[in-house]
Amino acid sequence: MKPNKIKGILFDFDGVLAKTMEDTFHAWRLAMNDYGVELREEEYYPLEGMPMKEIAGRYCKKFGINNSLAEEIVNKKEKYYLKNHHFEFYPGVEEFIDYLKNKKIRIGVVTAALIDRLEKSVPKNFLGKFDTIISGEKTSRGKPFPDQYLKGLSELKLKENECIVVENSPLGIQAAKNAGLYCIAICSTLDKSYLKEADEIIGTFNDLKNNLNALLKK
Fold first, then answer.
1. Cα–Cα distance between 176 and 56 in angstroms, integer?
2. Is the pLDDT of residue 195 over 80?
3. What does the CA dihedral 18, 191, 45, 207 come to, rounded to 10 degrees?
4. Which helix (H) or strand (E) holds 50?
5. Which of 10, 65, 114, 215 is the most exposed place for a label (fewest CB within 10 A)?
6. Counting runs of H as helices and runs of E as strands, what totals does the chain give?
7. Is the pLDDT of residue 218 over 70?
8. Which pLDDT score, from 0 to 100, does residue 217 have?
9. Quick one: average pLDDT of 119-128?
10. To 10 degrees, what angle do helices 70-84 and 21-33 make?
11. Burial of 79 (0-12, 13-18, 19+ CB in 10 A)
12. How far is CA 1 from CA 42, 53, 167, in A?
């Protein structure tokens, strides 16, 4: 059920606030190429949101790589990302985050990304606007388990019916729903056919702004 009064919003980061998915996939592809694997988009995008070591472990199993190399693969991926990324927000993101802050809406980021990568690639003044950042190392289990969203909810000091989630991946949607939260999905990286478990599906961040503006005026 959609909250009647929204007091907080938890955002996934990659593919929701920032246009980073292409760079992230490119970093995974370069890392896997070091092990003789030519990674395809369809082998990564549906896994977006999963803890990185788990993604690497799946690739090890799929491509016959020793699982002991999973952490090494993650480290390579992070280094490739920081070396080659071209950071960019989706249109309207910065203005809308400022709008939410002015409205006293509590906001948080819930992401599989590690805090080191966020701090090295995202403008510090932007990250500082969030009331909490639940990065990949903050919980022992990542998406699709509810742990990250439950921790985000707790840190915002809100109840399930006071907060909504904005996601772009099937695993993230599952995590939000498993935490008992209303979830809006954005078709930024995947077709809506992948996002059917969300409560709402929208096309762009500007659509999200319009939807939430209407709710926040209630």
1. 23
2. yes
3. 10
4. none
5. 215
6. 9, 6
7. no
8. 67
9. 94
10. 130
11. middle
12. 32, 34, 17
